[in-house]
Structures are given as C-alpha cells and as structure tokens.
Design a protein that fits this description.
There is one protein chain. This protein is mainly alpha-helical. The protein is 76% helix and 0% strand. Helix 7 runs antiparallel to helix 8, helix 8 runs antiparallel to helix 11 and helix 12 packs antiparallel against helix 13.
Length: 286
C-alpha cells in the first residue's frame, strides 16, 4: 500500500467501519434465512457499504477542514497537517459517491432509487452541526441505513426486523455520539456550532445517553423477537448491553472523545457476530 493510500485510509478512519458493518451483516444474515444471497449480490452490498461510508467520511473531513485546523483535538488530522490535500479528499468523495450509486443500481432498480436519497443524507450530516443540535441523531439515521439497505438489497422490500433494528442503531449511535461531543463542548460554543452538549449541557447529555443506551439493546432484542431469532442472538444483545454499560461507566469517570469509542465498537462487534452465528451456526429460533 502506498503512502498516499495509507493517508487516505486514515482520513476516512477505516477502523470505524466497526460501527456500521456488524449491523449490516446481522440484517443480511437474518434476511438470508428466506432469501439466499448470491456472491455477486454479497459483493455489491459490500461495495455499497464501503463506498457510501468512504464518501461520507471524506466529505466530512473536507467540510470540517477549517474547523479541524482550529480545534486542538483535531489539528493532527490528515488535511490540517497537510498529509492529504483538499483536492485528493474531494476526488475520494466524488469517486466513492459515484461508486456507491453504481453499485446500488447494479443491485436493483429499487436500491438505485433509494441510493439517491441515502447519499445526500450521508453527505448532509457533515453540515448538520451548523444548524441543529440533532446532528448526532442524523448520524444515527445514516448508520441505520446500513442494516435497512442490506435487507432491502437482499429481499427487495422493507420489513419490521430491519426497521426496528435501525431504530436501535439510531438510539445507540445517538447515545454515544452526544457524549463524544462533550470533548468539543467549549470549542463548539466558541465557534457557534450546534450539538446536544452545547444545547443541553453535560449533565443532561450524560443522562440522555444512559436512557438511549437502555433503549438500544431493548430495540435490538425486539427486532430479534420479531424475526424469531434464537438464543445466540439474545446472547449477542446481552453482550452488547454489557459493552454499552462499560462505555457509560467510562463516560461517568470522565472519558471523552476517542476514549468513548472502544466500548461502543465492542458493542457492535459482539452483536453482529452473535447474530451471524445465530443464523449460520446455531440456526435456532425463539
């Protein structure tokens, strides 16, 4: 891998795919029960996930470049420090966005049509904090599109399972992204940016995060019940809830910024693995 490719991978934080891919895999596995998936479909879905996320992250870095250069926490990011040029970041955004649209059209006409809604939503998140403190939940909605999109790509329709699972993702992402925002509270206030912590303050932010991280695993469980999944799936929900609890404990002890990401990454990974195991290894049902 060339030095440029390494810097671009760092720009879009490839490691952060842990926050979307496990839920897409969970939805795909459950959909597979009644709709066997071909390898071409699987590769196209993977292509959609990869390109959509890359386009959204690259545009986020382009959109926030000036702010990142001012913020002490983000001054070491690739664009502010000169490791990646704005031209390269724009090129990555555009090519990834076009790639996403192409993969979606190749999957089905329905996926192609929905991609015209999904891509603006994913890119629009980067501007949301300029005008609304609900930006964290916008991000949650964008990531919820991963399991919903995977389901639609495989089944050709919407169903209760991906929608309830997606609602859980919105609560989960919103719950940890509002605490992530605590790290930039003073900077956001100074720059006139909108965030949940700026609007409501640290105490309400932490309390709201706790409520959302109770709701998230409950919604994951409800999705499993709707789909008739087995005990391995339930075990994954329990493991996810424990990881979220660990994240809340870390936050209560003062963890901020990137420090809150680890537990939430484990929450997604444990749930996703358990959901796939439930379908392909255990094959059980509730």
């Amino acid at each position: 891998m060339t030095a440029v490719a390494i810097q671009l991978a760092r720009l879009v934080r490839v490691s952060h795919t842990i926050f979307s891919v496990p839920f897409a895999l969970a939805a795909a596995a459950v959909a597979w029960v009644d709709h066997p998936l071909s390898w071409p479909q699987a590769l196209l879905i993977l292509g959609c996930l990869t390109t959509a996320r890359t386009a959204a992250m690259a545009y986020n870095r382009v959109s926030d470049a000036a702010l990142d250069a001012k913020n002490p926490r983000t001054q070491s990011r690739e664009i502010p420090k000169g490791a990646v040029s704005m031209k390269a970041a724009w090129a990555l955004t555009i090519t990834s966005g076009l790639g996403f649209l192409a993969f979606a059209v190749a999957l089905s006409p329905l996926c192609g049509a929905l991609s015209l809604v999904a891509l603006p939503l994913a890119l629009g998140y980067s501007k949301a904090k300029r005008f609304t403190w609900l930006c964290h939940f916008w991000l949650g909605l964008v990531l919820a599109l991963a399991p919903i999109g995977a389901w639609v790509a495989i089944t050709g329709s919407f169903d209760a399972f991906p929608l309830v699972l997606g609602a859980g993702v919105v609560c989960w992402i919103g719950g940890f992204d509002i605490t992530y925002g605590l790290a930039d509270l003073e900077f956001d206030r100074k720059e006139g940016l909108h965030s949940f912590p700026v609007r409501w303050g640290p105490q309400v932010t932490i309390a709201t995060s706790r409520v959302l991280h109770v709701l998230a695993p409950l919604l994951f469980l409800a999705a499993g019940l709707v789909a008739g999944r087995g005990m391995a799936y339930v075990a994954g929900v329990v493991a996810c809830a424990i990881a979220l609890l660990a994240g809340q404990i870390a936050t209560a002890r003062g963890a901020k910024g990137d420090a809150v990401l680890t537990a939430n990454g484990w929450a997604a990974l444990l749930f996703g693995v358990a959901a796939v195991v439930d379908v392909f290894v255990v094959g059980g049902g509730i």
